[in-house]
Every structure is written in C-alpha cells, then in structure tokens.
C-alpha cells in the first residue's frame, strides 16, 4: 500500500530536522575542539617565547661572565647582573606555562638544575677575580669546567625547545585535521540538504502538482460540457481520493442535469391521472436493519417509466426487492408496471419464494395481449442467515459483488413475464451474502446504452464504474453506474429507461427477537 502524502511530508520533515540537528551538534563539537586546539597552540607559543627569553638570559649571563674574566672590568658584569635578576622569574613563568601545556616536568627541573650548577661556578670565578687572582679564574681548567656547565644548560634547553616544537607540530596537524573535518561537515550537510530538497520537490511534483494539473484540466473539460471526460486518479493517495470525490460530484451533477431534462419532458405528461399513476409507481422503500438500500430510476421520456422497483420488509431480518422492466415506456407501460409491482409484492408478503411469486403473477396475465411483456428480478435478502434467494424472469443478471471484489452473476431462472408463458415455473436460487457484499440490480437500459460508434456499455462498463467508485458506499455505486452509463451514451436521445438498485449487507448488533418475529419468519419461509 502506498504511503499517504502527509506521512511522506512528516517523514521528510523529521529527516530534515534530524539531519540539521546532527549537523549542528557535529559542527559545535568540532568548533569546540578547534577552539581548544587553538588555545593549546597559543599556550605552546607562550612557552616558546618564555623559553627563548630564558635562553637569551643564559647567553647574556655567560657572555658577561666571560668578558669580566678576560678584562676584569666591572662594566662586563652588567649583562650578567641583569640576566641573573630576570632568570628566576622567567624560570617560574616557564614552569607555570609548561604545566599548562602538559610538558614533562622533569625537563624544566633539569634545565633549572643545570643553570644552578653553572651559577655556582660563575660565582666562584667572580670571587677569584675579586680576590685578586684572575689567572686562577681564567685558567684552562676553570674555563673548560665553565664551558661544560654551560653546554649542559644548552642541552637541557634544547630538549625543552625540541619538545615544544614537536608539540606545536602535532597541534598544527590536529588543527588542520579539525578544519578539514569542519569543511567536510559543512559540505556534506549542504549536499544532503540539497539532495533532500530536490527529492522533496520531485515527489511533490509527481505526487501533487502534476496530478493536480491533470485533474484540473479534466475538470475544466467537464465544466465546458464534456461529461464523458475521464478524471484521472493518479499521484498521492490524497490526490486519488480527491479525484474520486470529484468524479462522484460530476456523477451527481450529471444525474441532476438528467433530472432537469426529465422535468421538461414531464410537461407533456401532466394531468391528474398521470400524476396519480406516477405517485403509485413510487417505491414504498421498505428497510430492515443490516441492509442499506440505494436506488435511482431515470425514465427515457418525462417522468413515467416502464421500469420500476421496490423493497418490502418481510420480517426483522428479511427484505424483498423487486426490479421490473415493462416493454416500452410512457403511460401504458406505467399502468402495466403498476399491476406487476403490486401483484409481486402481494405474493412476496404472502410468504411465497421468489420463483413461486413469479409463477403466481404470470398466471394472472392471461388477459394481457401477447405483445405486452416484462422482465423482473425478484430477491429475498436474509440478513440473519446471510443468503440471497432470487428468481430472474428474463431480466439482466443481478451482480453479487463480494467485499473482496469477486463478482457473481445471478442469472435468469425462467422466461420473462407474459401471457404466452402462463403455467411455466421459475426456479429460486440461494446464494451466500456476507457482510460488506453488494447486490447490484439494473435494467437493460443501463447496459444497452451505446456510444457514437454503436458499442454497448455492457456489463464491463458496470464493472469499470464500480471499480472506480469502490464498494464502500452503495449510494456512490448507484450514482457512478448511472452517470457512467449516461455519459457513455453521450448526447444521443435515450431509447430506454435506466434503473439501478444497490443493496449492501452491513453488520448489526444482535438484538433480542420477539415471538411475533419468529412467527413472521416461519410464515415467510413457507
């Protein structure tokens, strides 16, 4: 089963919202990581600056000491003194920044220890010069010892610098990867949103816009007078439902238009006698629980028809339906139809089976000219037992439409009603009738409607009309069959009356039965 458009829109909306939220979370996480990485890069740069300043101080100390030892002049101790004052603070700053970037604590400790050793050596040499023994301070031994101490400082400083360089390179690579990921996330999000948007537009076009355009064009054709125009039911389920509803509306309008034409034709059939005859032919419309009845009769001339139908309740669970078609139409046919109608209903009320009722009525036609005849479909619908008992006197086959879509023909069970066939018998046939099933009965005017090329509407036309309208609503089925047959015949003059009767078996809640109900059922089954 195809999903409805509303469900697709909901799923697409959830997809877009979910994608947007996921992308937003991913971008936020990546941006947070980028910010942290940039902060680490800045911290490493701060460590590198302090380390560079500290190295400069070490060099100034070493250079000032060497100049003082060679010359003995106090002016050379000025750089040494300044560096000696700045070095402890720089070392403390380096230790703080070093801990912030997670550097190995041992490297700074080693550097500070190496510097302390050199400082002690430098102080001892300065003390020798101050004591008047510069030769001892600048001896080869002391000079080599001082050089070794300072080389140890340089080695420790180089280890710190190498660690900082490695950390900066790693941080730069990490930052580059995060920026690449951010670019990929944005590109993937935009691409996916574009794809979802394009897919949504395609679905919207194919499911709504295009089908709506076709339906609008067909509706304009109907509005222009082409009642036979096909209203396409394509696209989303909502669009197909709309097309079905528009088709039902078109069928109802077509029926109303035909009723207007009937009213105009009726002007030629006015008068008290015709009015009384027309009123007598109106169906009494008996109903029972469990059976829905829908019917319509469209005379070929004015409002007097040779077709007729009626229903009568035989008990709380049994309903009789009679559909007849007298040869010809107009007042004479209507009088004969009235006679047959009351005779058949009287026989059915007396408890006769459909076949026996036809035989009894035919036996009363001995005085009718042989050229005057009729067809009739008689059925008793038993909602309690779930069966249809029918007899068919030369009438078009009734159609039993199961809820699952299976069609069963209730064909003729004897000859038509005429004085020629007095004494003949009609068989009564019993067929299962489940809840949801339809019994569709029509006269030959429906199936014998012809198009401009002379092709008949036929039973296939009825099948198509019912398939288009569905079997859920018998009133819609009746309107669809009648209107489709009328459209099939086009603007050609109608040659015969059209009658369509549809009865649907619907489930009802069980109710307690009275003794009178039981008695009536016993009489009606005799």
From TrEMBL:
Outline the extent of the HAMP domain.
206-258
For this UniProt record, give its keywords in alphabetical order, as a comma-separated list: Hydrolase, Membrane, Transmembrane, Transmembrane helix
Superkingdom field:
Bacteria
Tell me which positions the record assigns to the signal sequence: none
One of the Pfam families matching this protein, by short name: HAMP
SMART domains per UniProt: HAMP, PP2C_SIG
PANTHER family tied to this protein: STAGE II SPORULATION PROTEIN E, STAGE II SPORULATION PROTEIN E-RELATED
Identify this protein by name.
Answer: SpoIIE family protein phosphatase
> Taxonomy-wise, where does this protein's organism fall, top ranks first?
Bacteria, Bacillati, Actinomycetota, Actinomycetes, Geodermatophilales
